[in-house]
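Input (structure):
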C-alpha cells in the first residue's frame, strides 16, 4: 500500500479503538514517526492532511524539517528520542513538543533555552515503566517528584507523560501504569503506543500514539 493508504488505515484503526473504549472521536491524535525517511517520503503524508510528526534525533530532523515546515505552516514536530543537553538549543529551536524530558540537567537546559529563545515548547516526561537499564526515562516511583520539580522549581510546562514499554512484555500494564502516574501528577496527556500496539494504547487512554513503520514502512 502507498503511504497515503497506510496512513488512512492507521487513522481508521485509531477511530475504531476510540469507539471500542467509548472515547470520543479525535481523543487520540496520531504522531507520524518519520525517522530515517527523507523529505520526499514524508511529503505524501503531509499532502493527505497529516500535520503531527515525530523524529528521534535532532541532527537528522535538522536536515529535512526546516524546509518542510517552511512549505506547510501548521506542522507540529515532536522529539521522541533521547536529548543530550548540548542539543537543547537546537531542539527548542526546531521542535514544538519534546517528549523525552527525563532528568534534571536536561530539564534545566530546556528551560534556559525556552527563556533565551522566547519560544514556547510543550514538554512530556518520559517514564521508564519497565525499569530497563538500556532505556531512557525516569523511574515510575520518581515520576511524581520529578514532575513537581520540573513545574515548581525549574518552571517548565510539563503537560504529559510518555513511555515505551519493554518489547517482550504485554504493553497493557505499562499503559495502565502511565495513566495512573499521569493522574497522580494531574496531567492530561499520555503519549504511548507504537505501530505494534497503538490500538491497545488508545483503549488505555492514550491522547497521542507514535506510529512509524505502519505508515512509512521499514528502511
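Output (sequence):
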Amino acid at each position: 500500500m502507498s503511504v497515503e493508504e497506510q496512513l488512512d488505515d492507521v487513522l481508521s484503526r485509531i477511530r475504531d479503538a476510540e469507539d471500542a473504549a467509548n472515547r470520543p472521536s479525535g481523543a487520540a491524535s496520531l504522531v507520524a514517526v518519520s525517522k530515517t525517511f527523507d523529505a520526499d517520503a514524508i511529503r505524501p503524508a503531509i499532502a493527505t492532511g497529516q500535520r503531527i510528526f515525530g523524529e528521534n534525533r535532532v541532527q537528522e530532523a535538522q536536515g529535512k524539517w526546516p524546509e518542510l515546515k517552511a512549505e506547510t505552516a501548521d506542522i507540529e514536530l515532536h522529539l521522541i528520542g533521547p536529548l543530550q543537553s548540548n542539543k537543547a538549543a537546537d531542539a527548542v529551536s526546531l521542535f514544538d513538543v519534546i517528549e523525552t524530558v527525563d532528568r534534571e540537567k536536561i530539564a534545566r537546559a530546556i528551560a534556559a533555552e525556552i527563556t533565551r529563545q522566547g519560544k514556547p515548547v510543550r514538554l512530556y516526561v518520559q517514564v521508564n515503566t519497565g525499569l530497563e537499564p538500556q532505556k531512557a526515562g525516569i523511574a515510575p516511583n520518581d515520576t511524581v517528584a520529578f514532575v513537581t520539580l520540573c513545574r515548581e522549581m525549574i518552571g517548565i510546562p510539563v503537560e504529559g507523560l510518555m513511555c515505551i514499554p519493554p518489547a517482550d512484555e504485554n504493553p497493557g500494564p505499562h499503559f495502565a501504569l502511565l495513566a495512573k502516574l499521569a493522574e497522580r501528577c494531574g496531567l492530561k496527556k499520555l503519549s504511548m503506543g507504537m505501530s505494534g500496539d497503538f490500538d491497545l494504547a488508545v483503549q488505555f487512554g492514550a491522547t497521542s500514539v507514535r506510529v512509524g513503520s505502519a505508515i512509512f514502512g521499514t528502511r
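Notes: The CA atoms of residues 6 and 215 lie 5 Å apart. The beta strands are 29-33, 52-55, 76-79, 97-101, 122-127, 158-163, 189-191, 208-211.
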